[in-house]
Amino acid sequence: MPIPFAALLCCLLFAPALRAQRKTELPEAETWLAKPGAQIFDGRPAEAYAQSHLPGATLLPASDSALRRLLAPVPKNTPLLVYGKNDKEGETCAKRLRRAGYRQAQYLDGGIAYWRRNGLPLEGPGGVGMTRAAFDSLLHANGVVLVDFYADWCGYCPPVSASAERLAREHAGALTVIRIDADLHPDLCAWFNVTHFPTLYLYQYGKRVWKQVGFLVHEAIAFKVRRALREEMPELPEEKIMVADPY
């Protein structure tokens, strides 16, 4: 049976509004958290939740069976708020809750990254984030420091980060590696004029001695690090140096 034109027009007109209602803006979220019995969930991995999360947030289980057990005592008409690292992750989690029957589930606009950037409170050991003062103290308290600026959406970042972590293990006690998540610490990226990823900064006793923007093979990164550590290194063969444009 054909859909009446008037009904189709209503769907087209009101569908955007219905979609918009599934996202909660920051001021509304603060009010939500102040309500007794507020239901808020963290949709990020357990490791991220353990480091920092919104006050009173419950970790959203990864498995559907665990999610059903968690939500069993919660009435289906309860408004639920969920957040992720960003909008994409939050929206995915909200859809999952709606599929479980909680039609009023919404996600936090901007995710925890936006919450953190606005200086709002977080619970957990990593709640305060990395401040400029803390960053500077790390640079000056350690001899050789490799700073890895990365972003989860950057395709070249994982292999570069893996190289940094490998070097940290190989030179434990001599090399300090600091990883800076660009989404969680846009202020640090701005302070150090980091606009593309991955970006590596190498410091020697508080002074920057090397900068790399974009992908670089492990051997080339190791060469720079070991030279900063004053280890004897043969010249790197030309064919080993491979660079890719940054994101």
UniProtKB/TrEMBL annotation:
Source organism of the structure: Flaviaesturariibacter aridisoli
Boundaries of every Rhodanese domain copy: 34-124
A GO molecular function held by the record: thiosulfate-cyanide sulfurtransferase activity
Keywords associated with the record: Signal
GO process terms (BP): response to endoplasmic reticulum stress
Domain Thioredoxin residue range list: 94-234
Domain of life per record: Bacteria
Annotated Pfam families: Rhodanese, Thioredoxin
Protein name (record): Thioredoxin
Cross-referenced InterPro entries: Rhodanese-like_dom, Rhodanese-like_dom_sf, Thioredoxin-like_sf, Thioredoxin_domain, Thiosulphate_STrfase_CS
Signal peptide, first to last residue: 1-20
